[in-house]
Amino acid sequence: MSGNELQSLKEMLEYNSKHLSPTVVVKIILDIAIAIKSLHSNMIVHGNIGTHAILLITSHKEQQATALLSEFSHMHRLQLFTGSKQNETISQLMCKDINGLVSLTEALSLYCQIDKNRPLNDSEVASQGDVNYDDWELALESLDLGLVPNLALSYICE
C-alpha cells in the first residue's frame, strides 16, 4: 500500500481531511451500501454502522478512496427460520444496518453542506485542484436524492 493511507472516516471528518472530495464522499456511501448488501445476502448483520466503523484507504496520487467496513464486534450471523417471528427479528436486525447507512448519509450530507461553504486555503486549492462549489452541490444532491433508498426498499425499516 505504498502511497496509500488508512484512516477511519470519523478521524477524517474530525480533521476536515483534504481527501474527502465530493466524489469520495459519494463513493463512501456506495462502497458501504455494497458491503451491507453483500453481508445481508450472506445472512450477516454488521450491527454497528457509523463513521467509527468505516476505514478509508486513500491514495495521495489519485485523490481516490475506498471505504471498508470494520468494527465487527456487534456482528450477527443469521439463520433463516420458517416462523414469521424469527424472520421479523432478522428484518429488524438488517434494518439496523440500513438505518446506520441512512445516518451515515445524513452525516456526509451535512459535511457536504458545511464544506461547500468553507473557503479553501492556498494549500487546499493546490491539493484539491478544480473542486468547487458545484462539485459539492452535486455530491449533496446525490446524497439527498437517495443513494440509500434503493438498498433500503428491499427492507421494511422505520
From TrEMBL:
It comes from the Eukaryota. Residues 1-158 form the Protein kinase domain. PROSITE patterns: PROTEIN_KINASE_DOM. This is Protein kinase domain-containing protein. InterPro entries: Kinase-like_dom_sf, Prot_kinase_dom. GO terms for molecular function: ATP binding; protein kinase activity.
